[in-house]
Amino acid sequence: MAVLFTEKDLYAQHFDPKKHLEMYFTFHPEKEDINVLIGFALKNLHKAFHLGGIKGDTLIDIESGHTIYQFLSACECFREIIATGYMDGIREELQQWLRKEPGVFNWGSVGKYVCELEGDREKWVQKEEKVRKAIKRVLKCDVTQPNPLAPLSLPPADCVLSTLFLEVACPDLPTYRSALKNISSLVKPGGHLVLFVALEANFYMVGLQRFSCLFLDQKCVEEAVKGAGFDIEWLEGTKVIFPPALSDVKGACVLVARKR
């Protein structure tokens, strides 16, 4: 079921970052399907960074904006994390968490899960502070531009990470391929690209608002990554079944690739 592409101005008007976090990033017995997807991502990001040896000075996160789950393993491996987001409201949500403002989302259940993967569930408080210290900058980003961080021009990073974003930012496959090529410009030769991608989805809900998602299968993702100048080192996929009223997503994958 194709869904009309959600343009940037509609996101700015209708996307509620707090509601999004509550719906998709709260571990809860009644959210078994969502828990499986979060757990899949956290296990494979742990595999990529903590076990896989991806490390360096700088990691640039592409437009994940208001979330921090993607940094919980990476913060142990990089001196500096640059977080980015297109919308002001999404970047502000992250800034509020960094400033420890009242009412921000509690990442404790997600963080403790990662700490347990690392062997000590009770070190969440220290992990939380480590993430805060690692995030040095929160920048605006637009993956449709040749330099997504324009007008800034940063040195190429050791790793670029993108989680559940490109498939909602791109209306079609040519734009998706172009966005990956634009992102490639931010990675140094020999550096890594890490993607967490929703597969075979047309939409997802935040509250009562429906947002579009580019329908991608695993082959489309692999071909686009290779076409952007990367060699895939490994890819892990899983099937996903969400409540139909929430999303029609059918799967997900985490992919690690190295820039040629």
From TrEMBL:
GO CC, alphabetical: cytosol
GO molecular function, one term: S-adenosylmethionine-dependent methyltransferase activity
Pfam families linked: NNMT_PNMT_TEMT
Sorted UniProt keywords: Methyltransferase, S-adenosyl-L-methionine, Transferase
Protein transport among keywords: no
Gene3D superfamilies reported in the protein's UniProt record: Vaccinia Virus protein VP39
Amino-acid positions noted as binding S-adenosyl-L-methionine in the UniProt annotation, renumbered to this chain: 69, 142-143
One annotated GO biological process: methylation
Cross-referenced InterPro entries: NNMT_TEMT_trans, SAM-dependent_MTases_sf
Origin superkingdom: Eukaryota
Keyword Transmembrane helix: no
Record-stated family: Belongs to the class I-like SAM-binding methyltransferase superfamily. NNMT/PNMT/TEMT family.
Record protein name field: Nicotinamide N-methyltransferase-like
The organism of origin for this protein: Eublepharis macularius
Higher taxonomy: Eukaryota, Metazoa, Chordata, Craniata, Vertebrata
